[in-house]
Known about the structure:
Shape: globular
Largest sheet: none
Amino acid sequence: MKPASFLSQRGENAIILGVCLMLFGNFMFALNDAMGKWLVASFSVGQVLFIRSIGAFLVLGPMVLQEGPRNLFSVDRPRLQFLRVMLATADTGFFYAAVIYLPLADVMTFYMAGPIYLAAMAHFFLDEKAGWRRWVAILAGFCGVIVALRPSTASLSLESLFALIGSTSFAMSMLLNRVLRGTSDSVLVTWQTVGALIVGAILCLTSWNPPGLFDIGAMMLLGIVSCAAHLMITRALKLAPASTLAPLQYTLLLWAVIFGAMFFGDLPDMQILVGSAIIVLSGLFIFHRQKVVTNRVPKENVPINMP
């Protein structure tokens, strides 16, 4: 038998590798978001969705072949699968629509509230009862969203509503990830990409700006980067506990601030900073209480399909 110290060291190394993969995967998602913001300044959301999805299949292709057509088409609960595809497509589409006008950090602030929405919805739809402490954190998180949203007749913008609708779709797709946990990850992502491809193609019928080869390559790279980030985080969840990895998703907000300042000259104002601080602290407390009460954080609470 191997010494206990050797096994312990091996486990620690796996966790460290998982943390590193999670951090780098989040960096890749943030890079994907920054590239998307740059591209939607010149091309329609439909074009970006369409060509991005083609690029994604360069990575997904081997996974689809390995999965086989039988598993791809014989999915459980097809209506919920279809609903999840639509929600995931709305999540990505509204994200790109929002970043046309808003700084990356502003939009990402709304998306960081996804786990808070999930905790509230799981209480009602998955019978995962939240105690009073988590409800206080959930309500505080909603207050953070309201602070970031600036809900006044003078300042409430359509772009902020895009971000709010997109982040709500994101949370609902995470909820369905929990319901459809028996479906393999590659099947979920494949159909999600097919949905974005179809919706993007439809939107392109009304708005098409002929891209150059460089632009096509950049949009295809979006899909490749997003899929690579997805695979990194999926692998991280196999190496380290979700309770360890879940808080690391908030590094996305840090990267959004950095990339927004570096590439677009955008800096979040005080209201966004206050709102994001409330959301992050609330989310961290929810993860903490999940671990205290159930001794685990479900893997499906760690988003692996960011916009």
